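Take a sample.
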Amino acid sequence: MNDHAGTVAHQLIAAHLIDGDMVAGEEIALRIDQTLTQDATGTLVMLELEAMQLDRVQTELSAQYVDHNLLQEDFRNPDDHRFLKSACNRFGVWYSRAGNGVSHPTHMQRFGKPGKTLLGSDSHSCAAGSLGMLAIGAGGLEVAMAMAGEPFYLTMPEIWGIELTGELPDWVSAKDIILELLRRHGVDGGIGRILEYHGPGLNQLSAMDRHVIANMGAELGATTSVFPADEQVERFLRSEQRGDDFTPLVAEQDANYDRTDCIDLATLVPLIARPSSPGDVVPVSEVAGEPIQQAYIGSSANPGYRDFAIAAEIVRDGRVHDDVSFDINPTSRSLLETLMRDGYIAPLIHAGGRLHQAGCNGCIGMGQAPASESNSLRTTPRNFPGRSGTQDDRVWLCSPETAAASALAGTITDPRSLDRQAPRIPEPDDPIINAHNLIAPLPESIARSTDLDKGPNIQSLPDLAPLDDELRLPVGLCVGDDVSTDEIMPAGARVLPYRSNIPRIAEFVYEAVDPDYVSRAKKLGDHIIVGGRNYGQGSSREHAALAPRHLGLRLVIARSFARIHWQNLVNFGVLPLTFEDPGDADKLKAGDIVVLTALHAQLREGGPVSATLVGDDHRLGLRHQLSHRQIDVLITGGLIPWQRQQHPH
């Protein structure tokens, strides 16, 4: 234990620490209590469990949600749903059926417990930190390892204490709090850190308000976000008829943080993130008057009862502007039923809202794409280019208040300009609870005889070769800063149905950045990609590492990496290195040949890795932040062959 023992984050880590020292920058290993998978990533997780020859999950609870790929244009998505259900039966996992709800709020409602750890194959799994959990997004392969009972390895983060004081003004809500942090610190300001919220301002934030903030901590690049388990969390669990699952967990009075920040809630105004980055945040008043053609309510970033109810109150007795598509995306079936009971769905529909099924929907580009070259206001967590399904999209991120006010006006509108009193709507103490679409694991005796139901689109994982000691590789692609996993591996209705077919989904790698990359990679074979700062930000989809690896990617050299993608590269045998001299990134171009010799020894020595640029004998000084375990994983060819070596059958 160190000087920061009193923080909530350190209490959670200490209670689950298996190996390592709680010193920022050191590798630690944690015991994982719960796992979360969803259908865009869970298919690979289940195939990985099959490849690992797992008998039954070893966690306290594992849950699989079908919330991303809900459009059933042909056999592929329903076949994957059927495969996932058979895998849940086989391995002992809870199964949430299509239309039951978005994974993060649904898990929070039914399974989240203060004091527990959760590892999810979705970058927004950190939302469960709203309940006093240590909840971390990771690549699917790491989640599969946790389901098999293996520890989760990560670099011990710094703990960033964020004190909230004051009270939110009218027309300002939880979304504006996290947008304020993004305005201050950008999309990489949280890398290597846990965000821990404390202070008197927490008292007015419900558990679902905290979910909004914890969810979008991922957009700061944070390892996770943590809230205390206090009276608001107890109230939430009691409302879900799970009061016995409450355990108080708060920071000690003398808790110290590695870094501190303070937000006076009373000073906040309605904020909005401009296209196409969650970090490009300005006051709504600064961009008011911009015409819009879509306003979108819902997603895991604004999943609570009040997020929909306040929008209903704003548009009640009004009419959505003729040019606006007003899309309503309930985040769980239980929430939809509760909103219907309390009279909040009818005003949304009567005003012109379009009601969709409970799920991620347009947030992941699964329908509801905006018109070309038009502004779309969304309460979603991300607005990376093309993520909506429209290549030239202009997606803005905002609160439900701003989205609803703008839907009426047809232009971006500061909700404070509305000529009415601001609605104040608390979360209900008696929500309708519907667990009919959550299917419990089969008894182990029955599960052992269950076969996996694979349709024709479901392919086993490709074999990956070990990392050679000497590499002579051409540069296949050079990209800039803040490249997202959505740009590396597109989402949406056209691509994600191939998520369980790596050779097929690999055909789409980097298509929006360089349409010739795939054909060039096939000709080059093994090759390098050169990146800028924060390479691989965004989604945890390991397809963004595995599909390029299938095309021959062996090495990524970047100025810096986003945490989850960096680890996903390691898991699939792709070596991530950074430049000693960031200016060297500008000296490399597609077609250059880079040579690395005695690579294994250089990696194990821990110092700089020396490479040579053929033609001018320029020496590239490269660095890595790999542990000895990760180096062994890379040299072996990835986490699955390494795991087989560690646990031979």
Notes: The mean pLDDT is 93. Residues 73 and 426 are 39 Å apart (CA to CA).
